[in-house]
Each structure stands twice: as C-alpha cells, then as structure tokens.
Design brief:
CATH superfamily of the largest domain: Jelly Rolls
Structural class: alpha+beta
Shape: globular
Number of domains: 2
Helix content: 25-40%
CATH topology of the largest domain: Jelly Rolls
Number of strands: 12
Largest sheet: 4 strands, antiparallel
Order of helices and strands: HEEEEEEEEHHHEEHHEEH
Amino acid sequence: MNQLDESLLSAIPPFRRLDRAQIREILDLATPARFDERQAIFEEGAEASRFYLLLDGVIRVIRTTPGGDQIIVLHIAAGQLFGIAPALGHDTYPATATAAGECLVLGWPVRLWPTFVEKYQGFATETYKVVGERIDEMNNRIVELATQAVEQRVACALLRMLNQTGKKVDNGIEITFPITRANISEMTGTTLHTVSRLLSAWEKQGILESARRHIVVTDPHRLVQLSTSAA
C-alpha cells in the first residue's frame, strides 16, 4: 500500500488520533482487495479471519433469519471499518457483508487487532464510537418497524441512504450505489409490491425518480415530511 498517501486517512476513524508515521505503519500491514457488485466479502457465521477498511464504495450488511429470509440491517459508507468481530468479542462474523457496488477495501488479519489496540492510542476508542453509532442506527430501525407505518419506514430508509452517500445532481440528490425495490423491501420489513406501489406514487408526485437500480430524490423536503407523518 505504498501508493496510498496516509494523509488521506488522517481524518477518519480509527486513524484521526494517530500521526502520519503511525498510519503508515498500519497501511504497510494491509492487503488491498477489490470486490464486484453483489460479491460477498465475508459470510455470516464464518470464522472471523480479517477485518477491513472500506476505501471506496458501499457495503451492504445482511442478516439471515431462522426462517431463511435475508434482511438488510444497514449500509456502511466509505471511510469506515467493518468486519470488526474482535471489537465485539466474536470469533465469527455476525452478518454477511456484500458489495453494494464495486468496492475497494484494505484488510488486516484479526491477529493484528490486539496489537493495534494496544500500540495506537485512539484506535480502539474511535472504532467503538463507530460501533455505537451502528447500534444506535439498528435500534432506530427496530423502533421504526414497531411503531411506524410502511410509508414512514420507506421514507426513513431512503433518507438514511441519502445521508450516507447522497450526491447532488441536476435534478436532486442521488443515492450513489445501486439499490433495488427488493432491497428496500428487505430493509423496511414490507413487501416488494408495497414498495413498488409507494415509489411509483412518489414518482408521480415529483418526490423522486427511479430507474436502472438508481434513485434520485427530487424533493428531499417532502420526503422528510413523509418520514415523520403517515399522511
């Protein structure tokens, strides 16, 4: 990883409390890898052999229910660690991580985790902050599923993706990774038919545009209103 400038990582966890020499040490131990869309980086239940930093792209985190259904529990944007089973005290991966689009990652063997935690001040604490944020997001999702109408849940899911990866385009704000209506149904605990009906209605109302597995929100303010009211 000699080509990667350590200054590019200095503002993101878990590196933001480290100096450039320390970041260089960590990078020199990393192995880069590229994953195609829908390719699994690791599978739920597999032995946790490596942990990763996402340099570019979006990771889709999927859990499988006892009945065999797959649920998208969250998305991870570039600049974050993932597969950090050692930070959770796990020997296996608690979920499957797949590439939502083409992804570039750095990976380290899990045997290096305790070394990094001990040697680099702030590495662990900054990582645990990210873990806490993800737990908060998942708790919010549980509350949504228990208390909100379907329309609100779908609007909230779209807003989360906008906040994570939204890019300003001529006609609105685009979710920058491929997302299907089936993906949205898995995220919101509803049926594909219901998601299709809602998105089609919102397209007619000028709230969003959906085509070729990409969504552009053309009226973000209206989407926020929908997320807070079932009206």
